Amino acid sequence: MKLKAKAKNGIVKAKVMMKHDMITYDQAKKKGVKPNFITHVTASVDGKIVYEVSTSQFLSKNPILKYKFRGEKGKKITMTWKDLLGNTKSSTKKIK
Amino acid sequence: MQRRKFLSFGAVAVAAMMPSSLSATDYRKTKPDTWTSHTVDDSIKKLYGTGKLIEEGVTLKTPDVAANGGAIPVDITSSIAAKSVALFQDANPESTVAVWTVPENGIIDYSLKIKMKASGTMTVVVEGLDGKLYVANKTLQVALGGCEG
User: Fold this and answer.
1) Mind listing the pLDDT tens digit for each residue in B90-106?
2) Which residues of A touch B112 (CB under 8 A)?
């Protein structure tokens, strides 16, 4: 997972690229594999949630999410995703 | 009388605390029906319990013609004080794409890339703190479908 966050005038712009195949039910049937996609993504700063999304199989492969929130420089942002099979991955970065 | 006033104040305080506890809502668990609905209207009704929509205050930006249906950029912006934001489309087998929970004092400025099987209409619904649903639509052409794999 690639994560970037930059603060300017009290507003943080964050961008994240999650490496995931995002196999839909249709694709899974054709290829004979299990459907698997990211279902829930959260981002938090100091234990407070700043971004949260529940997603379906229709996000692109290796989905890129961009968002803004109110925050400050130097704090740490943690992003976590969870997929259909229960795998989770999280990554922490300092806000630049 | 005083006791009554005190009690009602307590009820208001509890109600006021609700939004913060709404963070960390997994809509796949709380509203499982939404994710299997096949039409946009159905999905909205299952998610919010009503189909009453107001067409204002929300901006949905996508290209008019998407060259690659596997990754269509979508930008959603709005200045409405909101509880949640939901994105739907009518080209894929199921309609719901994503549901955001807007944190307290949050900014609605979300971008992502989605897959669409064919040309269709995207719908974004913003659930305001006032309980009303604000909506924006955008119809686009997709040159190459993205769900065939």
Assistant:
1) 888 888 888 888 888 88
2) 59-60, 63-66
| Domains with residue ranges and CATH for chain A | 2-94 (2.60.40.10)
ipTM: 0.82
User: Which one-letter amino acid corresponds to residue B143?
Assistant: A
How many structural domains does chain B have?
A: 1
The domain in which residue B73 lies consists of 25-142
List helix spans (H) across B22-82: 27-30, 40-48
User: In this complex, is the C-beta atom of B22 within 8 Å of any C-beta atom belonging to chain A?
Assistant: no
Q: Which residues contact A28 (CB under 8 A, 6 or more apart)?
A: A34, A35, A36
Residue B83: CATH number of its domain: 2.60.40.2470
Q: In this structure, are residues A41 and A83 in contact, taking their beta carbons and an 8 Å threshold?
A: no
CA distance A63 to chain B (A): 6
| B17 within domain boundaries | no
pLDDT digits (tens, 9 = 90+) for B114-137: 888 888 888 888 888 888 888 888
Mutation choice for B interface testing from A52, A61, A64, A82 by most B CBs within 10 A:
A52
CA B71, B82, A69, A51 torsion-angle sign: negative
Measured CA to CA, the distance from residue A35 to residue A53 in angstroms comes to 20
